[in-house]
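Standup notes
- DV: blocked on the single-chain target, sequence here:
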Amino acid sequence: MTIADIRKNAEHKMHQSIEAFKTNLTKVRTGRANPALLDTVHVEYYGSMLPLSQVANLSLLDARTLVSRPGKKAWVPRSKRPFASRIWA
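- DV (later): unblocked, structure below
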């Protein structure tokens, strides 16, 4: 392995670290709601676990309230409807 290869590998790893740090910063609580806070939330959907953002539309109602609305009512099983249309405070 040459010095150029080592340098290229180190630059790649540093770039990955910076991107991961930027992603983590979006989840820092600042007193204002942010839909990115729910990126890691998964829900069961017909037997498989999916990110909440794929089965519901996440939006801000005001500066401190997140709203989760299902894309289509048919996507959400009857037992999950109260959860999917719930307002997150």
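- Follow-up: The longest helix spans residues 3-25.
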